[in-house]
Design brief:
Layout lengths: L20 E4 L2 E4 H11 L7 H39 L9 H6 L19 H4 L5 E5 L3 H8 L3 E3 H6 L16 H18 L23 E5 L2 E6 L2 E7 L13 E7 L3 E5 L9 H16 L4 E5 L2 E5 L5 E5 L4 E4 L4 E5 L6 E6 L5 E3 H17 L13 E5 L4 H19 L6 E7 L2 H5 L1 H7 L4 E6 L1 H11 L9 H4 L3 H16 L7 E4 L8 H7 L2 H4 L4 E4 L2 H13 L2 H9 L6 H4 L12 H25 L4 E4 L5 E4 L1 H16 L5 H18 L17 H11 L10 H14 L1
Parallel strand pairs: 3-9, 3-21, 9-14, 14-17, 17-18, 18-19, 19-20, 20-21
Antiparallel strand pairs: 1-2, 2-15, 4-8, 5-6, 5-12, 6-7, 7-8, 10-11, 12-13, 15-16, 22-23
């Protein structure tokens, strides 16, 4: 990391004009942010404008120096590790654990403890199921995720390749494919909620007698409500429908309880670089929590208006009423500690840290739910769930805890109303995970793993150790298995069962649902109580895995395991003999650069932070900044060690620019890159990210992206 990476006043767009700001408690606040806070976010909360702005000013005054010091600590540790590798060029591995302890990179393990988190909704504490991550800037996607609590199993099977890798053909209904869907779904019922006698395929209606009577829990009209492993299944009875007409019991559909929770994302999946973007994201978070978010769009020749689904009331078998949630429980992901924002300037003219603004704003907005100000409710236990990404080690987790304490005091919230999710995606956090959890032990509700960001930091931390393996081989390296196992084992040892989530990462291929069904069962089988999926449809299919696996039982089994030693986690994925052929090197480089350009051109030119981007083989993958981080760091590492040179990189950039241009040829708003490298902001930014990858702070992409996006917005 260089000093320019920590420069003041900005990590992002430090050229923001001074007009367009208003003064609030000594802060210069962008007019659109001040207007949003005072006319939309504050009313009804009991917090007046003076109190809020004074509180924000105090928050910034107290924590800005600490934030800056933590970033300098990151830089100092990285410089020490880099120097060790210069002094030990033949080590063949990373800095040893003993020496990492001497420099404070590794801290002592805390004595055994159990987290004290209370007031957590059942979707987090006790029921295992899928989780969505949705960009806060897209209201339609947010509502799709909100309503993904329930999904049609028939539709998910029919419309994807989940039936043995086949997809529907033609525009009309394929009765043969429909029959295969019904057969698959009823076999699913036979396996997990079987009848006492016979098969669901032969059931002709009435009140079924199940092998386990506890699986039948209620009705809604003629529909049946089943439950297994805490998740519900609704059997939809409609003999007059096209599907039910030919079913012996009139079954028209089988609906699965699917996305139990959704992270509304202010970080990796959004391109938010200024006050305009931040306000749009905050407004959607507010609307989602209140239940009054609306999105309209045209589908075919019809206008569709989407809103959040109301809850539904079922009858128990005893005749009592039972309300079930129709919406995913909403969490919000703030940004990390690195970036600043031009939305707020401090008295000395420097930009405020974006993470401090996010903490205050998302908590203030969360008060609308706590006070019941909206049409619908989110948390039934009075909690606001904030996922905090990209923290490096326990000191940064403790800093977040202190910030959340201060925000609670600022807003008059009881202590630990703000719950925190710790993303286990940085090497220093993985290596000190128990200590990180201990630093937030009374408010932690979530830990997870994420291969892409974690690998990006792995490469950056040991950039000078030697050339890294090819990306496909890194996925099979010893440290990855240790990382995934330790995350679950340490979470269980800290008492997460029945109190908090243990999560796993994203399935990135939204069109490969058969592969997902075959492979992602591994996540609940690992003892993880949630895992990320790329769409509501994927959530419904992944929900089948939680019917198949009793996660609570798996957690009890895994609790008896010894925790994998930290030494295995710290094994660096270096190439033992980097004797790849020119063709292998070119293929790896093209793959990396195509993924970088395919994503960056959308982020920078279109302001789209997450979307399905075709890879080099034209397979659509859900991409966000984590993909960009690992790809750019991998190329930077090979540049560092002479596997490739700058000329080869430039040739690949031009070649892959033409490839990405061709993949986007059908988009009339697309700005081609090939042959326009001096004019293409995206192409120039990609080159900067690669060539200066070793100097980027922790290998992050945000500083380069934010500057490029701000420039692109000026040209629009």
């Amino acid at each position: 990391m260089t000093t320019t990476a920590l420069r003041e006043p900005s990590q992002g767009n430090d050229a923001a004009p001074r007009d367009g700001y208003v003064q609030r408690a000594g802060l210069a606040v962008a007019e659109e942010l001040a207007r949003f806070v005072e006319t939309e976010a504050l009313p009804g909360t009991g917090i007046d404008a003076n109190r809020f702005w004074s509180g924000l000013a105090q928050l910034c005054e107290e924590f800005t120096p600490q934030n800056r010091a933590l970033l300098q600590r990151r830089e100092g540790l990285q410089q020490t590790i880099d120097q060790w590798h210069r002094d030990h060029p033949q080590s063949g591995d990373g800095m040893p654990p003993r020496e990492l302890r001497e420099i404070g990179y590794l801290v002592p393990e805390p004595a055994p403890f159990t987290i004290g988190t209370t007031g957590v909704d059942s979707e987090i504490s006790s029921v295992a199921g899928p989780q969505l991550v949705v960009p806060a800037l897209n209201a339609r996607f947010v509502l799709n995720a909100v309503n993904a609590r329930w999904g049609s199993l028939y539709d998910a099977l029919y419309g994807t390749d989940a039936l043995n890798g086949t997809t529907p053909t033609g525009s009309g209904y394929d009765a043969k494919r429909g029959a295969r869907v019904i057969s698959w779904a009823k076999a699913f019922l036979d396996k997990y909620t079987p009848l006492a006698n016979g098969s669901w395929a032969d059931w002709t209606g009435g009140v079924p007698v199940l092998s386990d009577p506890d699986h039948l829990v209620g009705t809604i009209g003629d529909n049946l409500l089943l439950r297994r492993n805490g998740l519900h299944i609704e059997i939809v009875i409609d003999p007059q429908s096209e599907i039910g007409l030919n079913d012996p019991a009139g079954i028209a559909d089988i609906r699965l309880e699917s996305a139990l929770s959704t992270i509304v994302d202010l970080e990796d999946s959004v391109a938010a670089v200024d006050a305009e973007d931040k306000v749009a994201a905050y407004r959607n978070w507010l609307g989602a929590l209140r239940g009054d978010l609306v999105a309209s769009f045209t589908k075919g020749d019809q206008k569709v208006v989407r809103t959040a689904n109301p809850d539904r009331t079922y009858q128990t078998l005893d005749g009592d009423s039972m309300a079930l949630r129709s919406r995913s429980l909403l969490l919000v992901r703030n940004v990390g500690h690195l970036m600043t924002t031009p939305a707020v300037r401090l008295p000395d003219g420097t930009e405020a840290y974006e993470g401090l603004l996010d903490a205050a704003m998302t908590a203030l907005i969360g008060m609308h739910d706590l006070k019941g100000l909206g049409r619908l409710r989110n948390s039934l236990t009075g909690s606001i769930y904030i996922v905090k990404p990209k923290m490096h080690g326990p000191d940064e987790c403790a800093f977040t805890n202190d910030v959340f304490n201060a925000v609670e005091d600022m807003l008059g919230l009881p202590r630990h109303t703000l719950k925190v999710g710790v993303m286990d995606e940085e090497r220093r956090t993985s290596a000190n995970l128990a200590a990180c959890i201990h630093a937030v032990k009374d408010r932690v509700f979530f830990i997870n793993t994420g291969f892409l960001d974690r690998t990006g930091d792995e490469i950056h931390t040991s950039m000078l150790a030697g050339p890294m393996q090819r990306k496909a081989d890194i996925k099979k390296a010893e440290w990855i298995a240790a990382y995934e196992d330790r995350n679950v084992q340490i979470g269980l040892a800290c008492g997460f069962t029945g109190r908090a989530q243990i999560g796993k990462g994203m399935w990135a291929a939204p069109d490969a649902m058969q592969d997902m069904l075959d492979q992602k069962i591994g996540h609940p089988m690992s003892g993880a109580s949630t895992a990320w999926v790329p769409s509501p449809t994927a959530a419904t299919l992944h929900a089948a895995h939680y019917q198949a696996c009793n996660v609570a039982e798996r957690q009890q089994q895994r609790l008896a395991e010894p925790i994998v030693p930290v030494a295995k986690l710290l094994t660096v994925p270096l190439a033992e003999s980097p004797d790849w052929s020119a063709e292998e090197i070119a293929a790896e480089l093209d793959n990396n650069i195509q993924s970088i350009l395919g994503y960056m051109v959308r982020w920078i030119d279109a302001g789209i932070g997450c979307s399905k981007v075709p890879d080099i083989h034209d397979v659509g993958l859900m991409e966000d900044r984590a993909t960009l981080r690992i790809s750019s760091q991998h190329i930077a590492n090979w540049l560092q060690h002479g596997i490739i040179d700058h000329a080869i990189v430039d040739e690949a950039l031009h070649r892959m620019a033409a490839k990405v241009d061709a993949q986007n040829a059908g988009d009339p708003s697309y700005r081609p890159m090939a042959g326009e490298d001096r004019q293409s902001i995206a192409l120039n930014a990609a080159r900067e990210l690669i060539v200066e990858g070793a100097q980027q702070p922790s290998g992050y992409t945000e500083p380069v992206l934010h500057r490029a996006r701000a420039l692109a917005k000026q040209r629009i």
